Amino acid sequence: MSNSIPPPPEVCPGFIYTVQPGDTLFDIAGRFNVSLSDLIAANPQIQDPDLIFPGQMICIPTPVQPFPTIECCLLLFRINVPILPDAEAGGVARVFQVPQRPGNVLVSTIGLPPPEFLGGNIYVAWIRRPPLPPIPFQLLQTGPVVIEPGVWVGAIIFGPDEQFAPFQDIVVTAEIAFPVTEPNLARIALIGLFELCRPQ
Known about the structure:
200 residues; mainly beta; Membrane-bound Lytic Murein Transglycosylase D, Chain A; 2 domains; 11 strands; 38% strand
């Protein structure tokens, strides 16, 4: 039987810790706020969890943080759209994210001129979340309400446990066609910052 210290695992979803004299896996798990079962699972090279050695390098997995529950609304403010005589452009976005349930974002705008005014053919809402890519969804025009211009609305639904918030902001842009992968920042009509999202 060899007394050599086993090497650290090849893959570590966290960081490497060097075992100190007197350490046990139970103590290490408590010190770094991870469950003992997660610590054991991250270190398959340890054959007997009751037997670790000073100087041995083990993986401390990063604790999985449940993503936050978010229910809020944010206002979308006019950018690049002049104040029109018949209507003031604006909008609202409703954000809903709860662990283990489908989430969604609903965007509704009013007073926007036709997208051709900004050089596009359609309106697209974007959930921007750098450094990740933005999430686009198309807005569709409803019928006119009295003398108001048509209302543009759109929504996107996320799967259970699919985190999309917090994010940077939501922008509405005029685009040539859908699908698109990046917003045309020269054609922003509305913008709303997530930090201003207020609980419902």
